[in-house]
Amino acid sequence: TAFVGPQATSATVPVDAAVRSLSDEAAAVRKRLAERRRVERAADVVTAFKARQSAGELLQRSFDLKAAETLLGEASAALKTPEFRAVLAAEVASLASAARVRDAWIASTKSAGKEIKLKLPTGGDRRRLADFTLVAADEKGFTAKRGPSETAFPFSGFSAAEACDLLFKDVLEKNEALRVDALATLLLAGRADRALELAEQLPEGPVRTSLVDAARREAEGWRLLAEIRELAAKTETDDAYAVKLLRAVNRLLDEFQDTRASLIHRRDPPAGA
To answer: pTM for this structure?
Structure first.
């Protein structure tokens, strides 16, 4: 560029033109790269959103951590941008936390030294619970008996929320070494209020601050979703609630779009531009 400007002479014109040509070509390359990054980012927004949404829906139905990890891994392999690989890596890390909670529960059943009583669903009604005695457990599931009959219960037969409430409750609440893993597991299961209670019991410091903030944000997302459902029901019989409903929906999508409440229950991916 030293040849461009008032010092240029007839001798420098060819070099001048070459420099300008290179500059124009570099600008064109930068423009193409910027457009490619924009397109890749837009595609990755959708891919990461759908993967997180699908994994969340799976965990609502099943405590099949391996299936959720496989789903996220396949999506991660298709991503082009490191920021969204990091998003899915955080999800996989949460699944690993849940696996440690599960394994801690299994270990506790083997070291209990006494019969372990469980209240488990029977038949087709998930709300109907009966008393069982645990027989054995491994990473795939467990066997429990009711009277003389034994029944196999695969972990995949429980939602993440059921697993937290019916199986892992003591481990989640009493195992200090697993407190951070317990928080991740509760958030995966949509139990943000309980996660917040545990987070507030952590020692003061940056880890506590970060986890309390995350749990509060998740809890507010679920609270807002409950409000939306209530307003939607009221709007069916009274149009006066429609404005409040729209305001609440927009707030959930705009301010809490990364929470599990929004992620699992919205139908459209966020804008990828």
So the answer is: 0.82
Q: What is the CA radius of gyration of the chain?
A: 27
User: CA separation (Å) from 97 to 50, 69, 94, 186, 241?
Assistant: 22, 12, 5, 10, 41
Structure-token pair, residue 271: 């804008």
Encoding tokens for residue 86?
């990091």
Burial class (CB in 10 A: 0-12, 13-18, 19+), 148: exposed
Two tokens, residue 113: 């030294």
Contact 60, 161 (CB under 8 A): yes
Exposure string of 238-265, with b = 16+ CB inside 10 Å and e = fewer, is: eeebeeebeebbebbeeebbebbbbbbb
Q: Is 210 helix (H, G, I), strand (E, B) or coil?
A: helix
User: Tokens 């019969």 appear where?
Assistant: 115
Model confidence at 199, pLDDT cuts 50, 70, 90, reads very high
Token output for 116 = 């372990």
- Helix, strand, coil shares, percent, the chain, to 5: 65, 10, 20
Q: Are 59 and 159 in contact (CB under 8 A)?
A: yes
- Extract the tokens encoding 241: 């609630």
- Total number of residues shown for the chain: 273
Cα separation, 125 vs 79, whole angstroms: 40
- Do residues 181 and 93 lie in contact, with contact meaning Cβ atoms separated by under 8 Å? no
Among candidates 68, 262, 91, which has minimal Cα distance to 184? 91
Quick: pLDDT tens for 106-162. Answer: 999 988 878 899 999 887 677 789 999 999 999 999 999 998 899 999 999 999 999
Token pair recorded at residue 145? 């008996």
Q: Side chain identity at 171, as an amino acid letter?
A: V
**CA-CA distance, 177 to 96, in Å (whole number)?**
15
